[in-house]
Amino acid sequence: ECPGGSGEMAAGLREGRLDCAILLTEAATLFAHKGELRVVGSYVDSPLTWGVHASAARPAPDRDGARYAVSRMGSGSHLMALVDARARGAPPPAFV
């Protein structure tokens, strides 16, 4: 879990502790603009646009088997990670 939200998840991506993170694309835009992460997938279009993001300093990860960061278990980012895996026909992701 990453109770610090988007900032904590972005730090985990930068530091290599995380492979992928589920966060609001609006929040990730700042980090992407700084060259700290990249959008590797977007799959929910609603008033809140969720995306899958990864470090810009490393190759895009294979999302099957990647360690996903979410803000809290049961949160929107946790549920969206499960939705993403199901939509891709993948097993549920590992959470950190």
Would you give an account of this structure?
This protein is an alpha/beta fold. The chain has helices at 5-14, 25-33, 76-88, and strands at 20-24, 37-44, 50-55, 67-69, 94-95. Strands 2-3-1-4-5 form a five-stranded mixed beta sheet, with helices on both faces.
**Side-by-side strand order of the widest sheet:** 2-3-1-4-5
Strands, count: 5
Number of helices: 3
Distance between the termini: 5 Å
Radius of gyration: 12 Å
Largest sheet: 5 strands, mixed
Topology (SSEs and partners):
Blueprint: H1 5-14, E1 20-24, H2 25-33, E2 37-44, E3 50-55, E4 67-69, H3 76-88, E5 94-95
Parallel strand pairs: 1-4, 4-5
Antiparallel strand pairs: 1-3, 2-3
State the gist of this model.
With 96 residues, the protein is α/β, with parallel strands linked by helices.
Entry keywords:
single chain, 96 residues, alpha/beta
